[in-house]
Amino acid sequence: MRRSRLLPALGCALALCATARAQSVDFSLPTLDQPFDVRKTWINLGFYSAHFDRDKGLEDKNPGLGVEYPLNDIYRVTLGTFHNSDRRQSHYLGLYVLPVELYGVRLGAVVGGFDGYPNYRNGNWFPALVPIAAVEGKNWGLNVAYVPTIRNRLYGALSFQLKHRFE
Predict the structure, then answer these.
(1) Whose C-alpha in 24, 67, 73, 161 is 20 to 30 A from the C-alpha of 41?
(2) 3-24+39-164 in CATH: which number?
(3) Helix (H) or strand (E) run with residue 71 in it
(4) 0.90 exceeded by pTM
């Protein structure tokens, strides 16, 4: 990743950590004594990606199926599959870390892995750290992610993921 793309993401991560520490956020993982409650599960039907390189013929509509389950107010596990911008099938598995809340918007990042991008590791799995903002109501939510451009491997975008839960 070029330094010009890495530095803003790194600065954002440091600012989030500093804000979280100032708010005395507890980063401890939840205990597993809480029963699974399917009503807490968010379901999404993919993404809409507004790509920065509009002239590359990329697919903005990325339909799929994914789930997100909150472990507590900070951590959520996620997994899913979608038709990516290169018109290939991708899968993802990750952990949301959302330590900061500003005016009802949770801020943080998703740490995990993706596959299916032919120019990046020949379509095999690769690690990812993606800054994210999440707005959630009782039954509807929206995740907005900043996907950085990785030259000749991955096309950057602002990605929007509408989600629903049947609570």
Answers:
(1) 24
(2) 2.40.160
(3) none
(4) no
